[in-house]
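sorry for the late reply, my laptop died twice this morning and i had to redo everyting from scratch. anyway the thing you sent over, i finally got around to it. pasting the sequence first so we're on the same page, its 366 residues, then the predicted structure underneath. double check i copied it right bc i was rushing
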Amino acid sequence: MKITIVGLAITSSWGNGHATTYRALARALRKRGHEIVFFERDLEWYASNRDMPEPPFCRVHIYERWDEVVPSLRFELRDSDVAIIGSYSPDGIAASEEILNASVPVKAFYDIDTPITVAKLRCGDREYLTPQLASGFDIYFSFTGGPLLRELENEFGVAMAVPLYCSFDPERYRTCTREPRFRCDLSYMGTYSPDRQEKLEHFFCAPARLLQNKQFLLAGPQYPKNIAWPRNVQTMIHLEPKFHPVFYNSSCFTLNITRKEMSANGYSPSVRLFEAAGSGAAIISDNWPGLQFFFTPGEEILLASSTDDVVRFLTDISPAQRKLIARNAQRRVLEEHSSGRRAQEFEDYIEAFLSRDRTPQDVLSA
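ok and here's the structure:
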C-alpha cells in the first residue's frame, strides 16, 4: 500500500512523543513493503532540533505554509491507498477536509492524544478536529483503548474507533548496552508537564531527598529554571531517541508517570513505557485503569501510590527480583507491543474495513 500521513512531527522528537510513535510504525510498515509519505509543517521548535531530518523509511514533505503544500498533497493522494491525519497536526482541520474530499480508498485519523482530543470535542474546541470531521473518517486509530472508543462512536459519530497503541522497535531495544553517564538507581524521561509535576515530586524528588546515597537521573526539556532539584538528581535537557535504549538499560529502575487526562481515562500506555520494558528496565509506575491489560502488577511492573512505595522498591527489592521483573516485562512487550506487531494490526484493521466481513473485535482476538 501507499500510505500518506499528515502529522505533527516525524523528523524531530524534541518535546513530543509523536515522532517516536510515527517512526516505529512507519519503519515497521516499510519493512512489510509499504510506501510511506509524511507531511510535516516546518515549525521553528522542531526545525532547530531535528534528530532525523531524512528518515530512511519514508519520504518527508516539510512545508511552511498550508496553501503552498496543498498541490503536493493532492498529487500524493492520487495513488494513495490510505490517507491519515494525526492529532495535533498544525493544519489538522484543512488537511482533514482535503483528505475527506479525496478519492482515497481508506481515510483515517490517528489520535496519539485521545483523552485530550475527546475533551476538546466535548467543549467545542476546533484546534485540529471537529465532531463533523471525526465522523467522516473510515477508521479512527487511537493510542487509547477502553471505554473512550465507544464514546467516540456513540457521542461523536465515529464509524470505526479501534486501538492502535504506541510501540517500539525490538531491533533497537532488545540488545542494548550500558553507559556510565546514564547509570543510576532511578531514572525518569519525560517533557515537563504541569499535570505530572506533583507525581514527579512524590515519586522522584522526594525519594531522592530521602535516599541521599542513591543516584537519580532525569531527561526531558521545558522544566522551569526555578525548580530546586535534590543534590543527587542529575538532569539533561533532551535525549535523542537513539540513546533511549541505553538510557533505560543503564538504570536499576525507571519511573513512568502518566498525564492527568490519560490517567483519568486509562488504557493509554505511553511509548516510553514500552521502550523502557523493551530495553530490559524494571519499571515503577503510577496506576491507572487498564494498566493490567498491558502488564501484570508485581510480576512485570511495580505500582506506586506514594513516596514510601518508591523508597521501598529502591531499598528492599533485590537485584535478582528486579532483573526478573524486567525480563518478564521485556518478554511481554516483545510478544504484544513491538512495532512489527503494531504494523500487522494496522494492516488487519485496513483489511477489516475494506472487506467489511471482519469487525475490529475479530482483529483483536485473532
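The chain has 16 helices and 13 strands.
thats about all i looked at so far, will dig more tmrw
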